[in-house]
Amino acid sequence: MGIVTQTAVATDAETAADFGTQLQYSPTTVPDPLTASPASGTVELGDLVIVGSRIHPDPIETNEIAVHIPIGSEAWQLVLDFTGLQTSINLTGWNATVDQANERILFKPNTGHATITPEQGITLQLNKLRINRQVGTAPVVIALKWRSPGSTSWRTEEQTLPLGKFPAGFYLRNLKAESAYIENGDPVKLTWERSGGATYHLLYENIEIDVTHYSTYTVQDIRRNTMFYLRGRVQQGTGTAERTINTYVTVNKPDLTVNDLVVEGDLTARLFGPAVRGSVNGGVSTKEYLPKSDGIFILTNTSGRQIHVRLYRAGQSAPEYDEPHENGAEVSHRVTKGGRIWLSTMQSSQIRFSYIFLPLGDQSSSPLGGS
Predict the structure, then answer these.
(1) How far from 353 is each of 88, 121, 303, CA to CA, in Å?
(2) 325-343 pLDDT, tens digit each
(3) How far apart are CA 229 and CA 244, in angstroms?
(4) Residue 101 φ/ψ, nearest 5 degrees
(5) DSSP of 83-101, one letter per residue?
(6) pTM, full prediction
(7) What confidence tens digit (pLDDT) does each residue in 108-135 have?
(8) β strands within 253-306, DSSP E
(9) What are phi and psi of 19, to 5 degrees?
(10) 29 pairs with which residues across the strands?
């Protein structure tokens, strides 16, 4: 999956506090990424699934969720029109109205308003979008009308999800480290799959490397836990589309950078707190954890199929990591306090995995919350 940058309007301290937005959205497209239609003839179709999650501890009420999709033939517009568009929402008692004149789809509860509770998920699905013929990036805006329970005043919160449209045949996927867990100072060999006709750059820390003509690259002397990003950029005419994927490498006994450290008397320190171990053996198709400390989440997939992993930092709506893991894979991820770990499989009631969570620092109690 590609990372989607998300822009949110400011929210007030009354309800948002340190939790960022009222709902956090994560988009997925089929195909991934979307394909721009050819200059003439057949129109390419695409599906858009938007998953919204509420991580704030208090409920809110809503009377409308609007998805604004720009219509037209320009690079910054997404679809030619709404002909044949199919819509759905996972919440019972809601209806969707396609409003082409205002370039939006309105989702509304039949009862006038509905309550969204903490940790509740909302899935909006738009199928058979008729993608226009220009490569570029289109802003899809989600407008949520909400209020606190007991209030009579509705507010509107808008968030923008940029969606890229790429030429036919473009792909960038499967960025992997040969080893996700290395010793301090070891090299990391990265591999990926990509198409031609685009520029590619590998980014980590404050380094950017042009890897346009490569599908493998070895980074030397890694001394700290590192997130690697691979960015592909394609331009046709005035339109530009960009896709970024990432992978994380954990270093055993990493170098630490400390600005000031003053110790008086004896010092006792530990890198990790007590390990938290667990497993899920079916019964659900998704699982979510809410880390109460920074740490390392080590996952072993035993589902017999892919498990999709998304990692969110505290207060962020877009995942900083969004990739599938094959059956049998053992991978480690750096996670942050107040963030979110979301795991899913496409097959209902079939998710199975085991995990070890290593909290950073001296933690005396279980720091891995979840649902």
Answers:
(1) 30, 22, 6
(2) 777 777 888 888 888 888 8
(3) 7
(4) -60, -35
(5) TT-EEEESSTTEEEEEEGG
(6) 0.65
(7) 999 999 999 877 789 999 999 999 999 9
(8) 276-281, 286-291, 295-301
(9) -95, 0
(10) 48
